[in-house]
């Protein structure tokens, strides 16, 4: 469905983002379908129960008969309404046409004559001929009663209005039966603000009641507050803290209407009804209901303009845009739409595939694939090209007589189809053995993919040609014998940006048990598919043979059977009235069926060959052609063209070249150098190519790359930041006049200025032989070895030199404090040091009680001194390494440009550049495409500029260089569900959690030398972060029974629980190396919190977030990913306020997020140089390191030591 233009309910506070249709039936509440309107910020939910919810509504049992409701609601007629079995329809649309806007404006100005309201868009919702809900045996006189009413929300840039319309005699009932008791509940008309949740209680929102009993509701279509019968107008963007009703008190009967007014009295917003006009025969009755406070000014602020006159126009009826509420047998509730509003190819070409043509018809347009492509026009794929299908499977299945179901979530489904053979291979991973063998007979779980890409006989169409891979399927399987039943629901969402078809599958019910180790054989079968107006149905009976494992040399065999019924619902183009190109009934022939369960890999596999054609017993010659049986020898990237009899020939698919038996990819980029133009790079891909604009250019509507900036005038690129020099941490831009500049590397770096590399001064022998040399970006430092003291250039035997804090503390304690003149007249100040000899960030005077913050050198920070008993909020500072030699510029710390956010989104990793504390959204793009993968955790190695990620579909752990190159899988064995991952850039190790194997592991950066740190006391470990300078490890465990955040040293010692109280689902975790703050997001408590791990207490940064997953930090901001918002959200932790968010162009769940620093944070540990002297794993601890051996190191010369 095309996204209409947006509507905003105020200029300062955004109002709506999506319209959601909710369906309520007896005993059922659920989201049936969603059609998004690109509006402003929140959500409008249209329910069949006569309300428009501003927030997501609760279940109907909680709000019917209650007012106010807990969620914000606009209620033109709130009651338990029934739209099942043809008992009415719900219509909606958003409209910005001039005649509809004028009509809305006229209605509003009748109620507010002084208003100069000029709407920019309206949302129209109509409940037509809806019935009251009735309990069995209730009064049958209500069965024929029907109500019709309408709500219109109109908005301009400065104000907002609601219009309720009730046609004459349109309200035939005024109450409905209660599901919760033996009573009738009166309908409710009014407005309700959302309630406010406090810690221990909930405060109801303010509300406004228009009508709530039979008399007042009956009077709605007779009365008005706008001078016209049945019209009620309210300003919902008023400047006061209340809703403002229209107040027309004069009797309009004495007013002589003109012709245009006469026309308007019979013009409802009929473009929603598609029926006769119904606002006719107005009586001059006024009504002004009392009001109570509703939306506050911050919700809908207004700024009224001077009055302005608008000409009343005539409004011809328009055809409808409809949401039909239907029910198909036992398939549940289906919402489908058709758009009868005139649409043309001129402004809808984007709805067709790039490989399709668009054709206009009298009532609309349709898409059809061009020659060489197959599909429904909206989705097209090259004939003969192999296809891939990816998706997720979830289920709750009882096996045999077992009273406990097997429950699985987020299981991967992958399918590969050899299109010219109709051969489909499907694999479902991580299916437990207790269920895997019993699912073997259900080959048709993957058989739907075979139907979609079945070989088509002449004049017949497979599923993809009909649906384009966009449909829902509900299947009911009934096993004969014990009558077990399984329901399978599948949704196919078309082709994604990687060219892969996407699917989601749900299974629930009971199936017969098949013994572990058995094999299942399924004979070839046929199945009839019947197509009728957007619905395809099929039913059949099938048998399968089970061979159980041998016992005493004998393998028993038995036969099972089940009945299979399925309904497929899809959208077809209704405007093309030409005869169907394929028969209404087609036969799917399936053979070479192969089913297998691998208990070691826990993978369920189905394979089958499929062809679709006429109803036949298989004896016709046409069914035996090699093109239809898949027995040809064409290349997998070729189309098999049938001839007479058994003759055929092979033709390479579009984008390939050859004789058909062998096809090779055409490199369009090499053969047509100018294909993408001079401002784009051409990237060849199998069967196609891709144009990507070079830096400084972007795609325009014309499909070409044009300059993103206008450089017609002289520009100082150094000042503007549009140069191509390396980042400021490594290079500087030197302006040379005009628009010219040169790039030079900073001291400590070498290169041409556009690409600068760090000089490793440690290779030049600057340090003393008894010192360690630490190379840092642009600099280096020297530190004497243990047992030596000195500055690193000169080291002598002796005790370890004391730090400045330790030395001053020793002097103060020994000299009575004369060393410190401040506050000496009151008492002696004694510096406080941490366990490493660094100054504690907060220093307090023992006698006076005054406290202040200090920097890393112990100097008091101005303005931080507090009164007695008050501790200022000081940030921890890590002691820097002793810097010898040239140093990097101080203005690059701690917010260097060139820092990025990296986050995972399904099969790709994206990045957003950071400019200071702001996300540079225009520079966001996919960093790495990883098709067929589900990336969860991401981590970054600031030394080698490598990104690491976990993939639960493999499962595997991989990495890739940000400077280019192919991704490399470094670990792919002995993994269950790897999720969180962290990089120790000092010790050159990776750490990860595995929520299926319930353990935490460590390995070298290349995946070698794996060692399990913890495999006990874990239930659902997820996020993991490091503080490598101090040698600490932190992780979350979202065990629903006892969630916790734990910590240990990086060698696994000193494990302890850090946080266990007031946690729900702690998903994401981050450690800020600059402030030493540990922060987490919790999807259970809906909070973002922080703490200093070395101090007591925690701070709530922000509450009421939706469903956070990952979190990272940079500067004053925390950035978290949110599943509900499909966004990266920025929060200023210093003022506890959300300040920005970013939604990728492709909306889907976002997972892990990390910060890719332009340069590594300062600091070192004992593993930094020479691997700490360890033979294998060097794992840092506070003030030291531990040498550990990897697991399973039989015969390896490894030395462990602390």
UniProtKB/TrEMBL annotation:
It comes from the Eukaryota. Keywords: Basement membrane, Calcium, Cell adhesion, Disulfide bond, EGF-like domain, Extracellular matrix, Glycoprotein, Repeat, Secreted, Signal. Pfam families: cEGF, EGF_3, EGF_CA, FXa_inhibition, G2F, Ldl_recept_b, NIDO, Thyroglobulin_1. InterPro entries: 6-blade_b-propeller_TolB-like, cEGF, Cueball_EGF_LRP_Nidogen, EGF, EGF-like_Ca-bd_dom, EGF-type_Asp/Asn_hydroxyl_site, EGF_Ca-bd_CS, G2_nidogen/fibulin_G2F. It is found in: Secreted, Extracellular space, Extracellular matrix, Basement membrane. CDD domains: EGF, EGF_CA, nidG2, TY. Residues 802-874 form the Thyroglobulin type-1 domain. One of its GO terms (biological process) is canonical Wnt signaling pathway. LDL-receptor class B repeats lie at residues 945-987, 988-1030, 1031-1075. Disulfide bonds join 844-851. Residues 76-239 form the NIDO domain. Its main location: secreted. GO terms for cellular component: basement membrane; plasma membrane. SMART domains: EGF, EGF_CA, G2F, LY, NIDO, TY. Residues 623-664, 665-703, 714-757, 758-796 form the EGF-like domain. GO terms for molecular function: calcium ion binding; Wnt receptor activity; Wnt-protein binding. Coiled coil: none annotated. Residues 385-622 form the Nidogen G2 beta-barrel domain. This is Nidogen 1. It comes from Catharus ustulatus (Russet-backed thrush).
């Amino acid at each position: 469905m095309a996204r209409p233009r947006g509507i905003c309910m105020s200029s300062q506070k955004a109002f709506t983002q999506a319209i959601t249709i909710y369906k309520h039936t007896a005993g059922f509440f659920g989201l049936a379908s969603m059609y998004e309107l690109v509006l402003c910020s929140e959500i409008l939910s249209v329910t069949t129960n006569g309300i428009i919810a501003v927030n997501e509504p609760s279940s109907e049992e909680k709000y019917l008969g209650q007012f106010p409701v807990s969620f914000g609601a606009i209620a033109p007629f709130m009651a338990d309404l029934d739209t099942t079995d043809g008992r009415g329809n719900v219509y909606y649309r958003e409209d910005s046409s001039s005649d509809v806007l004028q009509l809305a404006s006229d209605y509003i100005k009748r109620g507010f004559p002084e208003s100069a309201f000029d709407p920019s868009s309206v949302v129209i919702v109509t409940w037509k001929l809806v019935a009251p809900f009735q309990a069995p045996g209730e009064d049958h006189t209500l069965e024929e009663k029907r109500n019709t009413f309408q709500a219109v929300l109109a908005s301009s840039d400065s104000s907002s209005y609601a219009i309720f319309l009730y046609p004459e005699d349109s309200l035939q009932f005024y109450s409905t039966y209660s599901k919760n008791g033996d009573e009738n509940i009166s309908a409710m008309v009014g407005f309700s603000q959302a309630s406010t949740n406090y810690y221990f209680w909930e405060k109801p929102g303010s509300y406004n009641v228009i009508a709530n009993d039979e008399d007042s509701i009956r009077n709605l279509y007779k009365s008005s507050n706008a001078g016209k019968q049945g019209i009620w107008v309210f300003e919902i963007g008023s400047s006061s803290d209340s809703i403002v009703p229209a107040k027309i008190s004069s009797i309009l009967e004495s007013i002589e209407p003109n012709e245009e007014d006469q026309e308007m009295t019979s013009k409802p917003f009929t473009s929603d009804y598609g029926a006769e006009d119904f606002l006719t025969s107005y009586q001059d009755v006024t009504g002004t209901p009392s009001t109570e406070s509703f939306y506050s000014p911050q919700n809908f602020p207004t700024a009224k303009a001077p009055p302005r006159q608008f000409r009343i126009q005539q409004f011809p009826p328009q055809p409808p845009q409809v949401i039909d509420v239907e029910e198909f047998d036992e398939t549940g509730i289906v919402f489908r739409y058709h758009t009868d509003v005139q649409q043309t190819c001129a402004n809808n070409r984007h709805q067709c595939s790039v490989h399709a043509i668009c054709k206009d018809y009298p009532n609309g347009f349709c898409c059809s694939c061009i020659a060489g492509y197959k599909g429904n026009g909206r989705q097209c794929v090259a004939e003969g090209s192999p296809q891939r299908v990816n998706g997720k499977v979830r289920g709750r299945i009882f096996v045999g007589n077992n009273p406990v179901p097997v429950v699985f979530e987020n299981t991967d489904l992958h399918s590969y189809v050899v299109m010219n053979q109709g051969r489909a291979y499907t694999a479902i991973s991580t299916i437990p053995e207790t269920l895997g063998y019993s699912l073997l007979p259900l080959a048709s779980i993957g058989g739907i993919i075979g139907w979609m890409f079945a070989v088509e006989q002449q004049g017949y169409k497979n599923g993809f040609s009909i649906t384009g891979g966009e449909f829902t399927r509900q299947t009911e399987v009934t096993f004969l014998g014990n009558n077990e039943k399984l329901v399978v629901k599948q949704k196919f969402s078309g082709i994604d940006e990687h060219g892969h078809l996407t699917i989601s599958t749900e299974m629930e019910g009971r199936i017969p048990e098949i013994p572990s180790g058995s094999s299942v054989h399924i004979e070839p079968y046929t199945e009839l598919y019947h197509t009728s107006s957007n619905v395809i149905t099929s039913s059949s009976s099938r048998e399968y043979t089970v061979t159980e494992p041998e016992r005493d040399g004998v393998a028993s065999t038995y036969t099972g059977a089940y009945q299979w019924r399925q309904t497929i619902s899809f959208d077809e183009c209704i405007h093309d009235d030409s005869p169907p190109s394929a028969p209404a009934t087609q036969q799917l022939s399936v053979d070479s069926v192969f089913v297998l369960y691998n208990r070691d890999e826990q993978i369920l596999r189905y394979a089958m060959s499929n062809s679709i054609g006429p109803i036949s017993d298989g004896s016709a010659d046409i069914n035996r052609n090699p093109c239809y049986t898949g027995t040809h020898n064409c290349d997998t990237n070729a189309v098999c063209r049938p001839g007479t009899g058994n003759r055929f020939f092979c033709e390479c698919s579009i984008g390939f070249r050859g004789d058909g038996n062998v096809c090779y990819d055409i490199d369009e980029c090499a053969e047509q150098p100018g294909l993408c133009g001079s401002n784009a790079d051409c990237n060849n891909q199998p069967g196609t190519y891709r144009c990507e604009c070079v830096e400084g250019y972007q795609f325009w509507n014309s499909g070409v790359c044009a300059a993103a900036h206008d450089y017609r005038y002289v520009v100082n690129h150094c000042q503007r930041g549009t140069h191509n020099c390396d980042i400021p941490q490594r290079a500087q831009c030197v302006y040379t006049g005009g628009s010219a500049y040169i790039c030079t590397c900073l001291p400590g770096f070498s290169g041409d200025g556009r690409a600068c590399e760090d000089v490793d001064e440690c290779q030049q022998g600057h340090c003393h032989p008894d010192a360690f040399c630490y190379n840092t970006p642009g600099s280096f430092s020297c530190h004497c070895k243990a047992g030596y003291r000195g500055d690193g250039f000169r080291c002598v035997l002796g005790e370890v030199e004391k730090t400045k804090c330790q030395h001053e503390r020793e002097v103060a304690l020994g000299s009575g404090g004369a060393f410190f003149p401040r506050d000496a007249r009151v008492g002696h100040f004694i510096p406080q040091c941490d366990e490493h000899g660094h100054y504690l960030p907060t220093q307090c005077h023992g006698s006076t009680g005054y406290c202040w913050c200090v920097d890393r050198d112990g100097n008091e920070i101005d303005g931080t001194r507090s009164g007695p008993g008050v501790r200022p909020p000081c940030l921890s500072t890590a002691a820097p390494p002793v810097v010898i030699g040239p140093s990097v510029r101080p203005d690059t710390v701690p917010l260097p440009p060139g820092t990025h956010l990296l986050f995972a989104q399904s099969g790709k990793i994206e990045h957003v550049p950071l400019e200071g504390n702001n996300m540079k959204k225009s520079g966001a793009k996919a960093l790495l495409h990883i098709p067929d993968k589900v990336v969860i955790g991401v981590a970054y190695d600031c030394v080698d500029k490598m990104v690491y990620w976990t993939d639960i579909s493999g499962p595997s752990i991989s990495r890739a260089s940000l400077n280019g190159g192919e991704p490399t899988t470094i670990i792919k064995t002995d993994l269950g569900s790897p999720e969180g991952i962290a990089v120790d850039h000092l010790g050159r190790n990776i750490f990860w959690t595995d929520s299926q194997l319930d353990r935490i592991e460590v390995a070298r950066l290349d995946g070698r030398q794996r060692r399990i740190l913890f495999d006990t006391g874990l239930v659902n470990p997820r996020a993991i972060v490091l503080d490598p300078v101090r040698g600490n490890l932190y992780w979350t465990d979202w065990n629903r029974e006892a969630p916790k955040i734990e910590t240990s040293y990086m060698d696994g010692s000193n494990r302890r629980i850090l946080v266990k109280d007031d946690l729900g689902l702690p998903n994401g975790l981050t450690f800020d190396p600059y402030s030493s703050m540990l922060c987490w997001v919790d999807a259970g408590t809906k909070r973002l919190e922080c703490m200093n791990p070395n101090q007591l207490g925690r701070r709530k940064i922000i509450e009421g977030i939706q469903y956070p997953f990952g979190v990272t930090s940079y500067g004053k901001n925390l950035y978290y990913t949110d599943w509900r918002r499909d966004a990266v959200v920025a929060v200023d932790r210093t003022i506890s306020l959300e300040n920005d968010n970013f939604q990728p162009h492709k909306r889907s769940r976002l997972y892990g997020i990390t910060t890719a620093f332009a340069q590594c944070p300062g600091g070192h540990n004992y593993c930094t140089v020479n691997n700490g002297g360890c033979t294998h794993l060097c794992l840092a601890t506070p003030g030291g390191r531990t040498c550990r051996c990897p697991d399973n190191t039989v015969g390896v010369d490894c030395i462990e030591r602390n």
